[in-house]
């Protein structure tokens, strides 16, 4: 069966199509990083060795293996090799606290844990709580060295049969000290993303966000499945991004808005040859209309913004180069995606009214791993019984069917493309002996798009400086969740029913845009 025939099927698996790509184009580059390159033939063989080694270590069809490391060719191949063994991947954020990483490893039930030295060093204090077999992707003493652990060259794994609703990956929604939610995405969801057709054979895609992020996977997976080349960056750097784009004649890229801003602000941006670009994508955070306009004006190729959730449901797409007068919106629902707006009473609101955004499509999570209650809270069912995913965002459709986001109902903060939950930071603040109550909001940041700021009321008879409290909290949370500022106030503004008015805090913040 040819690649074209596999991709035309209603369902197949990613490892199947990569095997066929290896047969049709064995010498085509599949993965590239600063240290190593793999062709499709080499990638397919390495996936076999990884899958065979996992099966040797007792990983069965339907089990889970976890990975937490800097992006590399080895990491990308391991992600794909885990899938070939029939297991689900739990990609974890290295910026998470050690306690959160242990919690996620335990919750996922991972039997094998792939990591690197940086993660191993961070986990030193809790290493005895990790029961999964450790494999070091960078050859360090973080675990069994990757090359030693691999099955012998030419090894083949036992074939597995994967069902469409079988877990493909478990992405954890929070890396703070709160309890993370494992979002279980099935193979059918990923197959639908692969078949969208926006990454053609021969595409060269820059991968500049981490492999544990859904933002990355919706770009990386279709690229390799469709016979393209993924150029992997271990860490985003604007100058390096531009140099690699020029060197490899990059055609596609998925970026978060803060990365676009950093690129466009470079004085030398226009000196790079970016004429190879066919399409650029954006997601994960609010994308300012003026920044979209600047990208369209100065960066060759089209620009598409996606709005959606890791949990799936419905997504919208703004084809910005075709609708320059709609840059303030996130576009229209994608084909096959049903987006509706509901009021506080759970009923759909009339056209033109503001409501919470709920969505339904073929790309939907199975649920939150081991948390049926949270899964139920995230769902809305239409009067005719159809299941939708609630976004927690509110918006309004205009007369042309374009969706404008109004605010985030859940007050979630998106910083540098990563989700920060204020309640987790507020829980940490509550542990400080001088803090009576607190509220955390997101404020504008030139560097991150948004960043968390805390407002704190002190206990009577207690004293502490803002700097002391910030140091206390930031020492106990992941790197991406750290507070940027803290204001000590006498009282927190509340509604007549006692709800803290976070919008008032956000609007009244005197720090304005933070660096």
Please provide a written account of the structure.
This protein is of the alpha/beta class. The chain has 3 domains: 3-235, ANL, N-terminal domain (Rossmann fold, 3-Layer(aba) Sandwich), CATH 3.40.50; 331-408, Roll (Luciferase, domain 3), CATH 2.30.38; 413-508, GMP Synthetase, Chain A, domain 3 (2-Layer Sandwich), CATH 3.30.300.30. 28% of the residues lie in helices and 25% in strands. It has 16 helices and 27 strands. The protein has a 9-stranded mixed sheet with strand order 2-1-11-10-12-13-14-15-16, with helices on both faces. The chain has a 5-stranded parallel sheet with strand order 4-3-5-6-7. Strands 17, 18, 20, 21 and 22 form a 5-stranded antiparallel sheet that branches. Strand 20 and strand 21 (387-397) form a beta hairpin. The longest helix is centred in the first third of the chain and has 17 residues, at 40-56. The protein is globular and about 70 Å long. It starts with a helix and ends in a 7-residue tail after the last helix. The mean pLDDT is 93.
**CATH homologous superfamily placement of the largest domain:** ANL, N-terminal domain
Q: How far apart are the termini?
A: 54 Å
Q: How would a textbook summarize the main sheet?
A: 9 strands, mixed
Helix share, percent? 25-40%
CATH fold field value of the largest domain: Rossmann fold
| Helical run tally | 16
Give the CATH class of the largest domain.
Alpha Beta
CATH architecture group name of the largest domain: 3-Layer(aba) Sandwich
Strand order of the largest sheet: 2-1-11-10-12-13-14-15-16
**Residue-averaged pLDDT, rounded?**
93
The structure class reads alpha/beta
Enumerate the spans where pLDDT stays under 50 for 5 or more consecutive residues: none
Cα radius of gyration in angstroms: 23 Å
Number of domains: 3
Binned strand content: 25-35%
């Amino acid at each position: 069966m040819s690649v074209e025939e596999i991709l035309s099927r209603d369902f197949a698996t990613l490892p199947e199509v990569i095997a066929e790509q290896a047969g049709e184009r064995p010498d085509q580059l599949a993965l590239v990083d600063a240290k190593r390159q793999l062709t499709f033939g080499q990638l397919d063989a390495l996936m076999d060795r990884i899958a065979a080694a996992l099966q040797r270590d007792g990983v069965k069809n339907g089990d889970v293996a976890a990975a937490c490391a800097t992006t590399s060719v080895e990491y990308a191949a391991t992600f794909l090799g885990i899938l070939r063994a029939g297991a689900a991947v739990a990609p974890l954020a290295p910026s998470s606290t050690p306690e959160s990483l242990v919690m996620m490893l335990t919750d996922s039930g991972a039997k094998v844990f792939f990591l690197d030295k940086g993660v191993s060093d961070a986990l030193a204090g809790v290493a005895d709580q990790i029961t999964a077999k450790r494999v070091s992707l960078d050859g360090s003493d973080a675990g069994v060295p990757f090359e030693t652990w691999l099955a012998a060259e030419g090894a083949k794994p036992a074939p597995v049969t994967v069902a469409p609703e079988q877990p493909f990956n478990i992405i954890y929604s929070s890396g703070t000290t709160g309890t993370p939610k494992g979002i279980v995405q099935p193979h059918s969801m990923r197959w639908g993303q692969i078949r969208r057709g926006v990454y053609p054979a021969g595409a060269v895609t820059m991968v500049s966000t981490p492999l544990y992020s859904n933002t990355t996977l919706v770009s990386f997976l279709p690229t390799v499945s469709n016979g393209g080349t993924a150029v992997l960056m271990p860490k985003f750097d604007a100058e390096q991004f531009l140099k690699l784009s020029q060197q490899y004649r990059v055609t596609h890229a998925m970026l978060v808005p803060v990365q676009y801003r950093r690129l466009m602000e470079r004085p030398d941006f226009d000196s790079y040859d970016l004429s190879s670009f066919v399409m650029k994508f954006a997601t994960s955070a609010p994308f300012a209309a003026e920044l979209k306009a600047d990208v369209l004006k100065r960066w060759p190729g089209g620009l598409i913004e996606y709005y959606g959730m890791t949990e799936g449901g419905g997504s919208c797409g703004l084809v910005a180069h075709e609708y320059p007068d709609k840059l303030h919106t996130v576009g229209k629902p994608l084909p096959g995606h049903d987006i509706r707006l509901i009021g506080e009473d759970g009923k759909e609101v009339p056209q033109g009214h503001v409501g919470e955004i709920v969505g339904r499509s073929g790309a939907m999570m199975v649920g939150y791993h081991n948390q049926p209650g949270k899964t139920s809270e995230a769902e809305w069912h239409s009067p005719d019984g159809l299941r939708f995913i609630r976004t927690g965002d509110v918006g309004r459709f205009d007369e042309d069917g374009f969706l404008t986001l109004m605010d985030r109902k859940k007050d979630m903060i998106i910083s540098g493309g990563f989700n920060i939950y204020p309640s987790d930071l507020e829980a940490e603040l509550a542990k400080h002996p001088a803090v009576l109550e607190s509220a955390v909001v997101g404020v504008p940041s030139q560097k991150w798009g948004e960043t968390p700021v805390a407002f704190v009321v002190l206990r009577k008879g207690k004293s502490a400086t803002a700097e002391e409290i910030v140091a206390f909290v930031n020492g106990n949370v992941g790197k991406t969740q750290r507070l940027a500022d803290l204001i000590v106030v006498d009282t927190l503004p509340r509604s007549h029913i006692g709800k803290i008015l976070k919008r008032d805090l956000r609007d009244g913040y005197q720090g304005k845009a933070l660096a």
